[in-house]
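Question (not urgent): is this output format expected?
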Amino acid sequence: MKWSKEYSTWRGMISRCHNPNEPSYIRYGARGIKVCARWRFSFDAFYADVGPAPSLKHTIDRIDNDAGYRPGNVRWATWSEQNKNKRSTRRARPIEDVLASRDRVIEQRKNRRRRVGFEYEEV
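Got this back:
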């Protein structure tokens, strides 16, 4: 198993979370993302919990990006699936929220214009 995809995934996971010299440490370990003790010190435990990758196209993905690598928070996912689960991914807002937000902004602008001296009809 030493040269398997799962083993290299496990080593990379530990390195980016616990090695300050790793280039991607800033996005993982420096943010507080850690590997649970059960996995950090045992590839066999990691493999028993996660299982084999479904294909070579799958990589390890944290379900909650603000939590560490631990049982229940990881899955094998394709790049396409992982791109939907990034911190930078924007979630669609319900149209009611968008309209309510727009209405608040319009009302705030009207109130500001009234305070600086515009007549009510000009607002």
